[in-house]
Queue: 2 jobs
Job 1
Amino acid sequence: MAEYDKHAYEPFAVTVDLAVLTLRAGALHVLLVERGQEPYAGSLALPGGFVQPAESAETAARRELAEETGLFDVSGLHLEQLRTYSEPDRDPRMRVVSVAFAALLPDAPEPHGGSDAADARWVPYDTARPLAFDHDRILADAHERVGAKLEYSCLATAFCPAEFTLGELQQVYETVWGTTLDRPNFRRKVLATPGFVEQVPGAARLTGGRGKPAALYRAGPATALHPPLLRPSREGRPA
Amino acid sequence: MAEYDKHAYEPFAVTVDLAVLTLRAGALHVLLVERGQEPYAGSLALPGGFVQPAESAETAARRELAEETGLFDVSGLHLEQLRTYSEPDRDPRMRVVSVAFAALLPDAPEPHGGSDAADARWVPYDTARPLAFDHDRILADAHERVGAKLEYSCLATAFCPAEFTLGELQQVYETVWGTTLDRPNFRRKVLATPGFVEQVPGAARLTGGRGKPAALYRAGPATALHPPLLRPSREGRPA
DNA sequence: TCAAAAGTGTTACGGCTACACCCATGT
DNA sequence: ACATGGGTGTAGCCGTAACACTTTTGA
């Protein structure tokens, strides 16, 4: 076990990087900032910043999330640690170890400088690349993680407002997975899972202007899905 | 985006902690070291150490794995990043951010000072706690992750030697999950997954001294399991 | 009256569970 | 012979996929 001599190691900077995802107009979007300085000046990058001395990475991530989105209350938003990126050359200036997080937002207000935030903005996921540093990889890992967790957790409701229709919930799955799902079967599976969603009594909403008004639901107390809601089969899903 | 002023942040120590798991005599064991100094002098802890300036966390973890086990070749061993633990008070001496890894070993040679290693030794998983620092939590997270990955990946073969019987493979599942499985059904599911295991032609081995000799298998090229091999139902599995 | 979106019903298929049963080996 | 562990067969259950179909709204 190594000694804790303060000079035995080179100083590391520890940062957090955030892959903040939301759905806008039926398309997956990610929150990005434009870099003003070298390296990668002018490129887009994931928002992030240093972990402060008294903070955990989770605390720093939530603080950055509030700063970058300009939202007052980010306490209810889904935020989870992805993994840590620590290649020695990932930042050409110095040694930076970054703990990456994925955050999910229900709606998508354009973040115009809520606090001392940088000029963060929503960018469609498909047109986001290339990003600065190793952020392409982080973003891809976030997408993969979220897609996988939709299968066996109730994560999908984190993309939805407090009250939502089953059609909107289905759109979350279809957008993140890039597939289409059979509506009757989707409905049955969601309703068959106790605690996934709870119907709001009496409430209904018109969705597309036309058609039958849909019943409204709230997220239930469950966190896990049994049985899981599997993606349409594709062979050799990564381990 | 924060500035990269070298004085704008307090120095962080970045370490790796390893949850090295193996099966000995049908029981899950974890590699632990005994601490010689305060804090937690005399307590058991997960092996680990500092990330060196030119290393990624993954490189450091594999280096530590070789040092602590005393094995010459650790390149084939399964090693995966778990998550990063960064609570400000997790080490009372200074700010230490630790990237935790889980490692899986096929057999379990007792590691007697292979290199400059500390006196690491195998401890049955059930009697391992309490550990120093937040290592109880790290160890529990490693166990949970491995248990979950057995369901949908070919990870179980990482616990087995190059050639193994299906009974031994089943013991991996039963030991990690703490359950018993139906042998005929287990066999069918494993063999029905293309690329999970490949039979060694002609080979057979007696296992318990008695009984019919079992056919031998090798790990196949597949990494994912379709369909998954689910744990016997328990409600409310964590997300 | 038609299009659009929500919601219900039904049938066929496949995987899984829970067994019963046979095979080969050592004592 | 019998205990022990490996291996095969099978019947029923349950979830799912793939549809057809009905309901309610706006244009």
Job 2
Amino acid sequence: MLGETTEEIGLSEFEALVIDFFCDGVRILGLPKSIGEIYGLLYVSQEALSLDDLVRRLGISKGSASQGLKTLRELGAVRESEVGEGRRSYYEPDVELKQLVGGFIKEQVRPHLASGEGKLENLKQMVAKMPGDARADFYAGRLARLGRWSKRAKILLPLVQKFLGR
Amino acid sequence: MLGETTEEIGLSEFEALVIDFFCDGVRILGLPKSIGEIYGLLYVSQEALSLDDLVRRLGISKGSASQGLKTLRELGAVRESEVGEGRRSYYEPDVELKQLVGGFIKEQVRPHLASGEGKLENLKQMVAKMPGDARADFYAGRLARLGRWSKRAKILLPLVQKFLGR
DNA sequence: GTGATTGTTCAATTTAAATTGAACTAAGTG
DNA sequence: CACTTAGTTCAATTTAAATTGAACAATCAC
């Protein structure tokens, strides 16, 4: 099993630029650069890649690659390929924008929205217990507005997903 | 001019929780916590506040407050109040979701989209210069897909703004 | 079973980002 | 003008986040 195939190491200029493109992309979403590198290399590769391929070609640690792949799988941005023969897993990207955005909304956006709504509920209860003066009225008004923001976001998200679906 | 008005220092529990709410919010958007603190305190205050008020009540440095206010003004999330008498400036929040999202899209999202389109253009030119083999076809296909993503985003953003406008 | 291969976890380290604080500009006051 | 007050800038520091790498499971091969 020595020297089986020509093992590509390093990255072509083209590959490096595609990867850089995705690093910028994930940066906006608040995800670590390594996620962009991994997804980028998968996106620009014709064949599915193993964890070891990612480590070798990107020059990142096994820990980073493992952790990054885990996040990408949770987001639904990457899936295990069926083809790989041995015990080793190979990964390929999901390239459907709809899926990518859907996964991001489900994993990153909705949890934050939900926790925000919880906090808002607490705040409303605090105001309900305050003396009914002008200050409490002001607070109630501001909280009501936040509630409307949150409600709108919850209507908007499915619409966005629908729009991206076709 | 000593001891003019009862100068509130520190934060009530309610104020602290509202500020915390906004810190979470800006975190998702990839903005620093101090931005959330400043906007949060303005949001929960009935009167416009000066830079010095922010420094004192939030316990942050003048530098942070100045820089944070600058960013918030650029985003259109905060404006100078008309009322302030002396030479000092007072600030109040813009509480219209439409404006806030609009400012964020204009300042944070569009510039990234534009730079991404530039990079994509470069990549397409590189592929055009490659030998016309299967690999180049694969690359061309992937880049075309990225182009569609970007096009969709550009259609979607104004729709989102419109939706939030009413 | 032993030894090799694949992948995960997490404490220690590195890297990147935010914050401070002192020096500075600008504008107001007497 | 000299003196105070308001606000900005930016190098140095602090803080938070990402990455590493070594130890640890899990799975296969023999």
